[in-house]
Design brief:
The complex is a heterodimer of chains A (449) and B (217).
Chain A: H1 6-26, H2 43-67, H3 71-91, H4 93-119, H5 127-139, E1 153-157, E2 163-167, H6 169-185, H7 190-211, H8 214-232, H9 235-255, H10 257-267, E3 272-274, E4 280-282, H11 285-296, H12 321-329, H13 331-354, H14 358-382, H15 400-430, H16 438-446
Antiparallel strand pairs in A: 1-2, 3-4
Helix pairs in contact in A: 1-2, 1-3, 2-3, 3-4, 3-13, 4-15, 5-6, 5-7, 6-7, 6-8, 6-14, 6-15, 7-8, 8-9, 8-14, 9-10, 11-12, 12-13, 13-14, 13-15, 14-15, 15-16
Chain B: H1 3-34, H2 41-45, E1 52-58, E2 70-72, E3 75-79, E4 86-87, E5 98-103, E6 106-111, E7 117-119, E8 122-124, E9 127-130, E10 135-138, E11 141-147, H3 151-156, E12 167-168
Parallel strand pairs in B: 3-4, 9-12
Antiparallel strand pairs in B: 1-2, 1-11, 3-5, 5-6, 6-9, 7-8, 7-10, 10-11
The chains are: A mainly alpha (449), B alpha+beta (217).
């Protein structure tokens, strides 16, 4: 029997997983008239499966070869995307198809971001425009109210005038935020650049608080703190930032009813209280239902496609998609999914450590921190480790803006990886015995970003 | 399909997905572990473009730690001021003490603002070429310079120092090499192969660049 290397083993396992899920998804076909047993195969599921298998191979072999992408990052991302697509498909086939479409668009976006990230060294001259664009993107939703918050812009309504599709500008600003902060913190002029970075961070956080998008605000704050710490290595700055964030959180808690409610639900999700409609109900209805559905899955899950346990959980395709994963596939599988996120985070930190330029190192740290914080916040909220905030589970939750921004974050990581590989090759060229290319190759290192 | 067969199949599939999920996580973790990057990635980001670092070797200061590395870039200023590229926050270090430049001959230290700098116990007012492990002193504090692997190779692509312009040179060639190859540093990929390690007695590249010439003022 041929010995497979790690990449082949992982790719085979991910392809097996995708193919098995795809086969089960195909059973969602319509019954053939007159025959209660035989169902038609769901051709959409077949197409999605074939597409995913091709993308897994492209991500593991073609992109690393052509664009110097990291095959492990690509494969783990594709595993989570395949899980997301088929989980959404099991909830609602249309939603699964939409998620698959987003994955296709996101893949193109990821390659585009990667190509830009590996080439760009700085964009200092455009800082003002970029900050202005980010501010405008965060200000626009302030004038619209969707789901009791000002974080979305409605882009589609049905015949009854109900909003059916929205975009969340703060997801696009995530990318701008990380790249701009990395550029500001990688400059030589420590004092003015750091002041600019602090100002930009505070502006974004203030606008997010105004939008009532506290979950995203937490993600931005955690990412900014880690990036500042990585850029300066100063524990005192980190502690000051943590203290400032704690103070701001206390102030928001004091003046916001929504946060108080969330904390109360977190502390006593099963407490019975009188609801607004006069009936008795659970205080933390969302969390309580989620915990019950999560436990119902047991160790190995109830099976793909079974929706009985989580149908009473609100937002189960979005915020509570981890509950669906636990319910259908079990706790052990859910732990494996969490391990996949951990691998992505460790890999991102490795990319940051490999980078020869501060700009790329900081971008990689920012992207990794954001992905890690988002995963931690939503999974921790779903299992009631801390108060629930409305953020999505990367690559799995329904949500176009989130899916695209997460794939763009992977594009940033891949761009930094490709740049590090290129710099390492140039560095090796410096020590070639002929030394003929020394000065050309050295220029790559020498250039200050 | 009868119900028992269906139940058995469903249970098998449940375990299959569980096994696949665990297998994917373990394979991914094993792969990540086999290609582990440098330790302390977050700290490395602040020195991602460094060619070496300074480390406090003697003296006590409230804001300086002997455990902390003060990364040295290819070119930059040293001082206690926040605008300096290598910031040594101590009252004993001038706001802008000196300028460090990696040249073909090695790391050049040039005092700025008409001041002097004490290197290995001798005061210099002119530029001085630093050897690795050199002690640079300000007041009661002494910092030791360490240079990464690959710094020598990087230096080869740098401009020649203005030797005629007040650089303090040693009169007699030193038998010590300019750079010592060290492992485990961010730039060590450049000099990973043993064949690139300098320092053999017949290495044509090693040389007389060590500086000297105390100023005696």
């Amino acid at each position: 029997m041929a010995r497979w290397d790690m990449r082949e083993r992982l790719v085979i396992l991910v392809m097996l997983f995708t193919a098995a899920l795809g086969m089960l998804a195909m059973l969602h076909g319509e019954p053939i008239p007159g025959d209660p047993v035989v169902y038609t195969a769901d051709m959409n599921a077949l197409l999605i499966t074939a597409g995913m298998l091709i993308m897994i191979l492209v991500g593991a072999y073609a992109l690393p070869k052509r664009l110097d992408a990291d095959p492990l990052l690509m494969t783990m991302m594709n595993f989570l995307c395949a899980l997301g697509i088929f989980v959404q498909y099991s909830i609602n086939p249309n939603s699964g198809l939409f998620h698959a479409g987003l994955y296709a668009v996101g893949s193109v976006l990821m390659v585009a971001v990667m190509s830009v990230a590996r080439r760009v060294k700085t964009f200092r001259r455009w800082w003002l425009w970029i900050v202005a664009a980010a501010a405008v993107l965060l200000i626009i939703p302030l004038f619209r109210t969707v789901n009791n918050a000002h974080a979305h812009i409605p882009i589609q309504r049905n015949g009854d005038g109900l909003i059916t599709m929205t975009i969340q500008p703060s997801e696009a600003v995530k990318i701008i935020f990380i790249v701009t902060l990395a550029d500001m913190l990688s400059g030589h002029s420590w004092w003015p650049d750091t002041l600019a970075a602090v100002g930009f961070t505070l502006l974004c956080l203030a606008l997010l608080v105004a939008e009532d998008d506290l979950g995203t605000c937490v993600l931005y704050a955690a990412t900014a703190l880690l990036m500042f710490f990585a850029a300066t290595g100063s524990f005192s700055l980190l502690l000051t930032g943590v203290a400032g964030a704690g103070g701001a959180a206390a102030a928001v808690y004091k003046h916001t009813d929504k946060l108080k409610t969330r904390v109360a639900q977190w502390l006593n999700p099963f407490m019975r209280v009188q609801l607004d409609n006069g009936q008795m109900g659970l205080k933390g209805y969302q969390i309580a239902e989620s915990l019950m559905a999560l436990a119902a899955g047991g160790a190995h899950g109830l099976g793909y496609g079974i929706r009985d346990t989580f149908r009473y959980v609100p937002e189960y395709s979005n915020d509570f998609v981890f509950t669906v994963v636990c319910s259908q596939f079990g706790i052990v599988f859910a732990l494996a999914v969490m391990a996949a996120y951990v691998v992505i985070i460790f890999r991102g930190m490795r990319v940051a450590g490999m980078a020869r330029r501060r700009f790329h190192a900081l971008m990689a740290i920012g992207a990794t921190a954001l992905l890690g914080a988002q995963t931690f916040v939503i999974i921790g909220g779903v299992i009631n480790m801390f108060p629930l905030t409305g953020v999505t589970m990367p690559f799995v939750s329904q949500g176009g803006s989130s899916m695209l921004s997460c794939m763009a974050l992977i594009g940033i990581l891949q761009g930094a990886h490709a740049r590090a590989g290129q710099d390492a090759r140039e560095a090796r060229a410096l020590v070639e015995p002929d030394g003929g290319h020394a000065s050309d190759a050295g220029a790559g290192w020498e250039a200050r970003v | 399909m009868t119900k028992p067969i269906y139940d058995a199949l469903a249970l098998t599939l449940s375990y299959l997905f569980m096994a696949l999920g665990v297998g994917i996580a373990l394979c991914g973790a094993a792969w990540a572990r086999s290609e582990r990057g440098p330790r302390g990635s977050a700290a490395a980001a602040s020195g991602a473009e460094a060619v070496g670092y300074l480390r406090l070797s003697r003296g006590v200061s409230k804001r300086l730690s002997k455990k902390e590395l003060y990364y040295v870039p290819v070119e930059g200023t040293v001082g206690s001021g926040r605008a300096c590229d290598v910031q040594l926050p101590s009252a004993e270090v001038p706001g802008k003490a000196a300028r460090l430049t990696l040249t073909q001959a090695g790391m050049l230290l040039s005092p700025v603002g008409g001041g002097s700098v004490r290197v290995n116990g001798a005061d210099y007012r002119a530029s001085v070429l630093l050897d690795e492990d050199t002690q640079i002193e300000w007041g009661s504090l002494a910092f030791q310079l360490y240079l990464y692997d690959g710094a020598k190779e990087l230096a080869a692509a740098r401009p020649t120092p203005p030797l005629s312009d007040g650089v303090a040179e040693r009169e007699e060639p030193s038998p010590r090499r300019l750079f010592r190859i060290k492992r485990g540093s961010p730039l060590n990929a450049a000099a990973a192969d043993d064949k690139y390690e300098s320092g053999g007695p017949d290495d044509p590249g090693e040389g007389p660049e060590e500086s000297g010439g105390p100023d005696n003022d």
